[in-house]
Please model this.
Amino acid sequence: MRLERWLYSVPLRFRSLFRRNQVEQELDEEFRYHLERLTEDHIARGLSPADARLAARRAMIGIEQRKEECRDTRRVRFIEDALQDLRYGARTLARLPGFTVAAILTLALGIGASVAVFTVVNGVLLRPLPFPEAERLFLIAHSPSGPLARPSLADADYLAFRESDRSFEHVAAFSNYNGNLVGRGDPAVISVGRVTAEFFDVFRMPPALGRTFLRDDEKEAGHQIVLSNELWRARFAADAGIVGQTITLDGEPRTVIGVMPAGFDFPNNAVAWTLYAIKLDPHRGLATPVVGHLKAGVTRAQAQAQFETMARHLSNWSGEKLVSGILPLKELLVGDVRRPLQIFAGAVLFVLMIACANVANLFLARAAGREREIAVRAALGARRGRLIRQLVTESLLLSLAGGVCGILLAWWAVPALLSLAPAGKIPRLDMIRVDGWVLAFTVGLSLITGLLFGLVPALRITRSSSHESLAPGMRPSVRGQERLRAALVIAEIALALVLLTGAGLMLESFLRLRAIDPGFHPNNVMTLTVDLPESTYPTADRMQAFHHALLQRLAVLPSVTDASAVNWRPLGTMLMRGDFYAAGPAVHADFAVDKHAVSAGYFRTMGIRLLRGRDFNAGDTVSSPPVAIVSQTVARLLESSGNAVGRRVTLEDRPRPQDWLTVIGVVDDVRHWGPAQAPHPAAYRPYLQVQQRFFLRHMTFAVRSASDPLVLAPALRAAVRMVDTNQPATSVGLMEQVLEAATAEPRFQARLLATFAILALALALIGTYGVLAYSVVQGTHEIGVRMALGARSRTVVWMILRRTLLLTTVGITLGIVGALATTRLLGTLLFEITPTDPGTFSAVAMAILIAALAAGFIPAQRAARVDPLVALRHE
Model:
């Protein structure tokens, strides 16, 4: 009943608000009516008309108060008061342009940084995946854990799980590769998803044209293809009759059976999909990610329990400890960036808190000049709550203005932030945009910020008694305000130290990462990659012939001093790791090595040091004794029982006589996955002695130039076309750029955190300077008395610097405690440095102390120049 009455009264309130003149007229008529009735009553009792009117007026003393009561009864006063507060607050702020601009700019920096990071966090972490019922899509994993591991299932385990699972409606395995598309334009390398038949059923994505894969298609796997909407439009001009046509991918004719809706590009921005028909091979097993759509009524916990029971009977395909689990699909896309984004969100929150503390200090400084105004209003009957509301309204106006400037700053900062980020490191870029959620976040953050920095000064300024502030000659009491402002400065210094310590740790980690020797010298080395289709090159001999012909053309290019090839180049995205056994003293059964196929001169081209033995040469062919070169890690293992050079080793689990290799050399370890990852043990074979097509299909060619290698890029592509006109080249670039990209992510993280930390330090120093400068102004009389009594200038300077030292020391102490508690969150992002590194903590504390003393020196110099006579006469 109360709710209905309130809802009924809402239109009346707003009608009263916008028809104020009519409402006032109605109140006047009502009170005039009551006055006339009282007058008539008094006349009826025998009073004269004049006496009757006078008696009636006396009976209705306090008409204005009663009008106020009526207005309150109509419940529109709070709206009128709010509008009045807004108008008064706007006029007050307009009279102080310096104060207003400083506060708005400070808030704009804090709010803008927060909104920019939230925009990225919202797009990457918070937005759901663009699939129907995306919350029911999960990865099924039975794979190793670790920074390089990805959730996956071995092929045999996937087939077993698909047949026995009862928790998922559909499950599908998927992977991604680069395919060569020929026809309807120049040859191009496209991203292709290799998926099992249920893949599109898992995502509940029907095709826009045609159909998707069926179980029956597995009998003819490799002959059908599904196109993305983007490829269909860009390459085939949106031909409505594309279904049923044949295109050539990797040298094989494939029939187009369907076209997907616009926007679907899973996995890894795929523009086409081929069918993956699993054929089990006891000598060769693959592990791929597996995704499933959870059945209605089945929870993740139930599916996890059922899969863990099933996983006890699955194979240990990697030789390492395997972890079984059901993970949200989003983890595959955002798992690597979740922790850094959370850390950056925390960092900008610190910046925002420092900005709020700065603005609160500005309000407190301004409060000293408003105590008399507040006291006058209180003496005239204004309640404390009414005064607090007026002051908070002013702070909300400032924060909303800062929010408007902040959203404009974020609009510029988000593209700049994404452009600085390493290519491919931030997923879901298409979802990162300023939208309604971001605007709502900005408004909410602005309101919370306004309350945060406005409420405490409002409570403080309205607590003073009116008679003290109005007494002639009395100075407003500022000691309590000084203590509060000092506490805010201490908090700013502490927060800035936490951020600077984190940035210092990240910077030191990055510098140590840059100093790591990757095991090769990338200077003046350019590479390009070629993926040969097995349909066009069905044998190892055909592939080796292509590689040999291309190497010959590359070797004679101008300024080329060395040309060579390797199947898995350092810092690449592919690698084959497997069995390794040595004749004689046994090698540990679980020992595995990276398997590389290289051409003669590869180590010289890449600058990999040959430590012992000899390099491969042109005589190491299929007709010569099989040989191998091992890395230093493998050599140490072999040399524990003798000399590594000359040992007999094999890379097969069931070796035949021809599978045994003779070690002819030892080379330096190479950090294949980047400087942050320990080097893997590796074994190298001459590519002319390798007969498995899988090891020869993907080959990277490297050339070392005596001059600028960038000018060789067109010649490298032309050399590929001269060997095979239908064969495109990919990944043409400098190895120096590849190495830079390997450290781009920690560099970006260090730069971004350092930017927030420097911004926080600047705001903290501004706050420190403001407090000290205000203290000098407030203490001018005291300083004048001291100097009149003979105090020297250096004594006054030391008095101000001593206060600076006290504030900074307390802030640093609290900041170190906070940094010890928070920098542990950076543990997974640091390289060869602990989150509690004493050198970094000491350097940051010393830097803040020096900067704070520099900020306090200016007010100290100003205090030393105070003229005692002027100060005393002014007082």
Notes: The first helix runs from residue 2 to 18. The chain has four domains: 2-75, 134-328, 338-514+744-874, 533-726. DSSP finds 28 helices and 24 strands in the chain.
